[in-house]
Every structure is written in C-alpha cells, then in structure tokens.
Design a protein that fits this description.
The complex is a heterodimer. Chain A is an alpha/beta fold. Chain A contains 17 helices and eight strands. In chain A, strands 2-1-3-4 form a four-stranded parallel β-sheet, with helices on both faces. A four-stranded parallel β-sheet of chain A has the order 6-5-7-8, sandwiched between helices. In chain A, helix 1 packs antiparallel against helix 10 and helix 7 crosses helix 13. Chain B has a domain of 131 residues: Rossmann fold, CATH 3.40.50.11890. Helices cover 51% and strands 13% of the residues of chain B. The longest helix of chain B is centred in the middle third of the chain and has 26 residues. Chain B is globular, with a radius of gyration of 20 Å. Classes of the chains: A alpha/beta, B alpha/beta. The complex binds iron/sulfur cluster (2 copies). The site of one iron/sulfur cluster has 13 residues of chain A, from helix 5 and helix 15. Chain A: One of its GO terms (molecular function) is metal ion binding. Chain A: Keywords: Iron, Iron-sulfur, Metal-binding.
Chain lengths: 413, 367
C-alpha cells in the first residue's frame, strides 16, 4: 500500500522548512529587508544582498492548506468581501495576513518591505499582491514575463534580463544595500546543483515499482520555492536523491504491489495528500509523477535536464521563467506529458480540474483528449481545488478514479 | 447566421478581410490602417443561449466572455473571420489560442497571431523597445497573412478616425446622462458598432447624437454609474431604467474605459501604442494603471454626478473581483450607494431576483 513513510529526508525537510519560516521571522525582527515574491521570481537575486530575505505567500498558503487551516482562512478572506471564485491560495493568504497571521502553522510571514510579482504563472498574482500594495502602502514591482506558446525566444530572454536588472536597482534603492553579483552567481550555481539532484530524485519513478509517489515530490518541492539559491537546498536534494536511490536499490518502495502507474496533472491537492495516497494505495494504484513537480529542473515542454553552460546567471534565471506549467501553452504541455508518459511507463492520467487555478486547468480538456486519443492512454478528470477543501468531494473523485483503473484493466485485456 | 455574423459577413463579402481580435484593447487603429476590419470578439451573450462547442474545450468556470468567444469562433469556422489576433489581456484569454486551434477543423484553420503587450509601465527599462518589437512582429504578420503593406500616413488617418469615434462616444454617453437617450439604447448600439468599420461607427454615432440633440430630456432619475467588463444584459439594463435609475457613467471595458483616452496622433505605431497603453483609462486588466484606478473612478463619478455605483461583475473574472472589496469600501466611505451584481453564462434564472434587488436598491438610494 502506498503510504507516507517519514524517511530521513522527510525528517530533514520538516526541520528545514520550520527553521526557514522561523529564521525569516527572526531576521525580519532584526531589520532584514523583507521581500514577498511569486514563486518563480528569481530568488537568487536576493542572495546578492547582505540582508534581504524573501517569503513566498503561495508556498505558505499551501502549507496552511496542508495543515488543515485552508478553509477557515479562505472564509476569513470571503468575510472581507473577496469572492469565493478567487484562487484559494490568495484567499488563504489574505485571510491570514489581514488577521495578523491568524491560524498560520508558521506564525505568518513577516510584513514585506517590497512585493515582487510576475504575470507568467498567472496575472491574478499581480492583482493579489496589488491588494497588499494598496492596503499597506508597500511598493509592488511586477515582472512582465511573456507567455510561451513555443520555447522561450532569445528576445524574450533579453527583455526579462533587463527587468531583472531593474529589480536589482529597485532593491538597492529601497533597502539601501549594495548588490554583489558574485554572491548571486553562487546562489544560481546552488540552484542549478539542486535541480540536478531533484531530477535524480524524480528519476526513481522510472523504477518498477516506482521508488516514489508524486505525493513525496509534492512535499519535497517546498524548499525549491522557499530556499532557492541556498547551499542547504542543494545539499538537501543531494541527500534526498541519494537516500531515494539507496532505498530503491534495497527494494524499499512506497507501493510494492503497484499495479497502476498514474500521472497527476495540476497542483497538489494539499488537503488530501495522505488520504488520497493511502486510498489509492489500497487499490494498488500509485500516482508516481505529476506535471506540477516534473517540470522542476527542466525547461518548458521537456523533461530534459537544464543546460546553462553558455548563459550568464541572469540569463539562466530568465531562461527558466517559463518552466512551470502555467506559463506555457498546450503544445509544450503535451510534449512534456508525452515524454513523461513514455519515460515512466504511465498507465493512466488523472487530470485534476482546479477551479482556483484557471491557468493550469483551462487547457486540460484538450490535453486530456490528446492523451486519450492520440497517445492512447486512459484518462480521467476529477474536480479538486488545491487548497479549498469545500470544493472537493472525495467520494465523487474516487468513483472516477476507480473507473480509470477499470479502463486501464480494460485496455490491458 | 446570427446578427453579428451577418454584419461581419457583409464586410467579408465586400472584400475586407475580417480579423477577430480577442478583448479587451487590441491595436484596432493599426489593423484598420492596413485595410483589415477588426472585430473585438465579445458581446455575444444575446446570440448564444448555450455554448455546446465551447463546452467541449472549456470547463464551466471559465468566464462567459471566454466561453462565448470560443463558441463564436468555432461555430463561425472561418465563414466570416479571416484571422485571429490575441493579446495577453488576462489569464483566461491567453489560454485560448491553442484551444481554438484544436477546436477548428483542419480545413477551417485560421491564421492566428499572439501579441504581448508589456504589463508594466512604459517607463520601465526595456518596455517600450519590447512593445515596438512586438508591434513590428504584428505588422509583419498582418502584411504576410493578408498581403497588405503598412503605410504610416494611413495609420495616422486611422488614428484620427478612432479619435473622432471616441469623441462621439463620449458625447453619446453625455446625452444618455442628460436623459436624452436611454443608456440601454447606447449599450445596444455599442454592441453593434463593435462589428462595424470605424467609418460606419462614426456615421452611426453621428445619427445617434443628432437624434439626441432634437430630444427634450426625460425627467432624471437617481444618477448611477456602472462598472464592469461588459454592460449587463439588456433586460437588466431596462430593469434599472424601469426602476428609475439613470445610468450616467459607464466604467465598462467596452465603453468609457475604451473611449476615455485618445493618444496623441502619430504616424508611428510604437509611439502611439506606448501612449495608448500607458495612459489608457484605468482598467482592472491593465496592471500598470492600478494605482490610478480608484481616483479615476471617483472623478468619473463626480464628473457625471453619480450618487450610486453598480458593479456588474463578470463571474470568474479575477481582475475585477480582486479590486471589488477595496472599491466598494472606498465608495461607501464617500456616501455613495453601492450594489454588486454578478453575471455569468446561463444566469437567466437569476434575472428575476436581480431585478428585485435593483428595485430595492433604487428605492434605497432615492430616500
Ligand atoms: S491561480 Fe494558479 S498559478 Fe495563480 S496563484 Fe493561484 S494556484 Fe498559483
Ligand atoms: S471577463 Fe475577465 S477573465 Fe474574462 S476574458 Fe475578460 S478580463 Fe478575462
């Protein structure tokens, strides 16, 4: 049965994350310049300053949802007039921070001195940060990152680099600190190194039975967002990959009776990680990979590892701006999914249609048709909001998931 | 064929290529200057009670603007449209080009171009240059796809025509505010103008304004401004007017937000559109205008002496809904009556209760 086994890397992760949130609170109290960023904003830039720290509201919202306080925080935002149709990450975050960090398992995030958003994952995020910009009168710097229907163009990369340079100057001006490009370059190297180990960790899914579940990757991805650029992240992912490979070598796998190898498409269902993985495990099904995490460490439209030898750190950071699923189009999404299905020998794909995240979800019907009809792989679509449990019905989802397993059996006959 | 298609077909049959433009503020002047008829693909609600083709491609939590757009393009299947232009107005719209591409049968494929407008101030490093590059790319695509040639003089001429049209639109809205026309009539006209050439828009608006000049003002009701992406459905507008509300300001993406600002005329598209997007009347979808949005709305309310504000929300439009609590709070603090309504595809069954709320609101603000 697939289940959560707290591995040494798992225990290490808990310590890293807890310390990360605590450190930020302490450093902010001691006068650090605090930046709140959208997940893909190049955090390595902030490592180029002596005393600039960054916090990631989206990741914090995921943590809140995972710890079971997502709904109560969403309701707090709704009581302030924010529509229930807005992304649940945003509602959780506003519910938390307009109530002085209420209910946050991490004690909330220290108040920002600067907000940095981008419009590539979603434009919604810029609107969400604008709410704080207005309410708290804090500067908001938006990075304009063109969406990719085809692999990112050189001209787009140059445009993005010019904005990074602008961001550096803005932080220098607002924080009064001097930027050191060498420190940033070192941080970038750490990120590239971390990505290399992350891909080694994910490769364990190719094993039969898979060495990991997608749920492991959901949990372990958190420091990619909150600790990017640090040597601790590279070291943690090295440890994670080594440990995972060793476990596979020893035949220790999460679902020894794995009969169905599934792929998940969309953000993690944070409120369901344990429940969903164990209930699937009882059916000998394992979601072994997810588009949400297999994109980390590669470029849009591919699962191949990053190759940056010819790029400067700023160019490298610009080049990865479209790597997550939301900032690129259907063709590229299909390309990467095809590669994932082939490389990991996937039996079926679960499309999690997520009302909160339209950017991820509104291509899924065509993507589903492509996988089902052109790749000949059985699929199912279920409704799951990644952080608002009220918009999820376990029973309805499992009726569909079981139907998927039946259609996989059917296809095998 | 519905009325919009007939309008477009007439253009198409007259030899004008018709370019379907994704909302909200595509570079219409440029397209027009190349002898192509631009049509912004919105305002389809009255023509499609359901969207069966779009439903095969989009979940029901996409906004109705996106769902109607897909339905229209897939139903039309190239019968009237000769190409499509998308720009990055919002998250929903940017997802649609490839979906449409897959939805159209291979023999009905349309040339399609995606155009990125910087979502930051033109004063930011690299923004103007990037916009210029995108415009050069757009011009090159239009020239190749429609066998036309860009001409700076023709561009300036189109710019002037659009400026004239915007001026007339403002005049028409003023007449509605003075009780010389019903806002519902103006909104209906606007819906039609969207599918006409700017020359014909000017002629139609001159007629509308000419007729208004002859009229004596109807007794004014409570003066209300309305905000949103598109006007509410005609029956709701009529219910508002029937309840004694006079809609004197239209902070709507296809009305005042689109007409309020005309850039300095120019032969240079890069200079013109940098001005256009930078100084546009604030819209929730234009990120760099965010700081100007509330002051602009407040001064619009003041200018048109509106004592009440109705938010006509497009369900699932995050751009609008992130700002709503803040705007509501600010306007209430100024003593302005506020009513928030929400519209979506298939909301016909809610119209009755909406009308009741409108009547109650009208009574409340009258007191
Ligand atoms: S809409 Fe999607 S991409 Fe945007 S913040 Fe929410 S979850 Fe993230
Ligand atoms: S209504 Fe809002 S979400 Fe829909 S297309 Fe317009 S801007 Fe986008």
């Amino acid at each position: 049965m697939a289940q959560f086994v707290k591995t040494d890397a798992g225990k290490r992760l808990t310590r890293l994350i807890t310390n990360g949130y605590m450190d930020n609170i302490v450093k902010a109290q001691q006068g650090a310049f605090v930046v709140w960023i959208a997940i893909i904003v190049p955090a390595e830039i902030f490592a180029g300053f002596d005393n600039v720290i960054y916090c990631v509201p989206e990741s914090h919202s995921a943590l809140c949802a995972g710890k079971g306080v997502g709904v109560s925080l969403c309701e707090k935002a709704e009581n302030l007039g924010y529509s229930m149709d807005l992304c649940s990450y945003a509602r959780i975050d506003m519910g938390c921070h307009f109530n002085q960090g209420a209910d946050s398992p991490a004690g909330g995030l220290p108040k920002p001195d600067l907000l940095v958003s981008n419009n590539n994952n979603c434009t919604l995020l810029a609107k969400w940060f604008d709410v704080y910009h207005r309410e708290w009168d804090i500067p908001h710097f938006i990075l304009d990152i063109p969406f990719c229907y085809q692999p990112q163009k050189q001209r787009d990369m140059e445009y993005i680099v010019s904005q990074f340079q602008d961001l550096i100057q803005t932080v220098e001006k607002l924080s009064g600190q001097k930027f050191n490009p060498e420190k940033m370059a070192q941080a970038w190297e750490n990120s590239v190194e971390a990505a290399k180990h992350w891909r080694r960790f994910l490769a364990a899914a190719k094993n039969k039975p898979s060495g990991i579940t997608a749920f492991d990757s959901f949990v372990q991805m958190a420091p990619t967002l909150t600790m990017r650029g640090t040597p601790e992240l590279a070291e943690h992912y090295r440890f994670l990959a080594d440990e995972t490979e060793a476990r596979v070598d020893q035949g220790i796998v999460p679902a020894p009776n794995e009969k169905y190898r599934l792929l998940w498409d969309n953000i993690a269902p944070w409120h369901q990680l344990r429940k969903m993985s164990s209930r699937l495990g009882a059916l000998d099904a394992n979601i072994i990979a997810a588009s949400y995490t297999y994109c980390i460490g590669s470029l849009e439209g591919s699962l191949d590892p990053l190759e940056f030898a010819s790029l400067s750190p700023l160019e490298g950071m610009a080049r990865v701006q479209n790597f997550t699923i939301c900032p690129h189009g259907l063709q590229l999404r299909g390309q990467a999914m095809k590669q994932a299905i082939e490389e990991m020998d996937i039996d079926g794909v679960v499309f999690a249609s997520n009302r909160s995240c339209k950017v991820y979800s509104l291509m899924q019907m065509d993507q589903q048709r492509y996988v089902q009809e052109e790749l000949g792989v059985p699929t199912v679509m279920i409704d799951v909001d990644h952080a608002d449990e009220r918009k999820y019905s376990e029973e309805t989802a499992f009726v569909r998931l079981e139907a998927l397993l039946e259609s996989i059996d059917e296809a095998r006959r | 064929m519905n009325a919009i298609q007939s309008q477009l077909k007439a253009l198409h049959d007259a030899g004008k290529p018709v370019l379907g433009c994704f909302p909200l503020y595509p570079p219409l002047e440029l397209i027009h200057s190349l002898g192509i008829a631009p049509a912004v693909l919105w305002g389809f609600k009255p023509y499609f009670p359901q969207v069966p083709l779009a439903d095969k491609h989009l979940q029901n939590y996409a906004c109705s603007v996106g769902r109607y757009l897909v339905e229209f393009v897939l139903q039309d299947a190239g019968e009237t449209l000769d190409g499509l232009l998308m720009y990055n107005a919002c998250d929903t719209l940017r997802n649609l080009p490839e979906i449409i591409g897959r939805g159209l049968a291979k023999d009905a494929a349309l040339p399609l171009h995606t155009f990125h407008v910087p979502a930051v101030s033109m004063e930011r490093r690299g923004a103007r240059e990037y916009l210029k590059d995108r415009l050069d790319g757009l011009i090159a695509w239009l020239e190749a796809a429609f066998s036309v040639k860009f001409d700076p003089d023709a561009f300036e001429k189109s710019v002037n025509l659009y400026a004239e049209m915007r001026g007339l639109m403002q005049k028409a809205q003023k007449f509605a505010g003075e009780g010389k026309a019903l806002f519902s009539e103006l909104a209906e006209l606007c819906g039609k103008l969207n599918f006409m050439l700017v020359e014909d828009q000017i002629a139609a608006l001159q007629d509308f304004c000419g007729a208004c000049e002859q009229k004596t003002p109807a007794p004014a009701g409570s003066r209300v401004a309305i905000s949103g992406i598109l006007p509410p459905p005609p029956e709701i507008l009529k219910a508002m007017e029937g309840a004694g509300l006079t809609i004197v300001g239209a902070d709507l993406a296809n009305m005042h937000r689109a007409w309020a600002y005309s850039p300095t005329p120019s032969k240079d598209p890069a200079a013109y559109y940098a001005d256009f997007y930078e100084n546009h009347f604030p819209c929730t979808t234009l990120l760099p205008t965010a700081d100007r949005r509330l002051p602009a709305l407040e001064s619009m309310l003041e200018d048109c002496r509106a004592g009440a504000w109705i938010f006509a929300g497009e369900k699932f439009c995050e751009h609008e809904y992130f700002e709503l609590p803040y705007v509501e709070k600010a306007l209430k603090a100024k003593g302005i009556g506020v009513l928030s309504l929400e519209f979506s595809l298939g909301d016909e069954q809610n119209l009755g209760s909406m009308k009741t709320r409108i009547e109650a609101f009208a009574e409340m603000i009258e007191k």
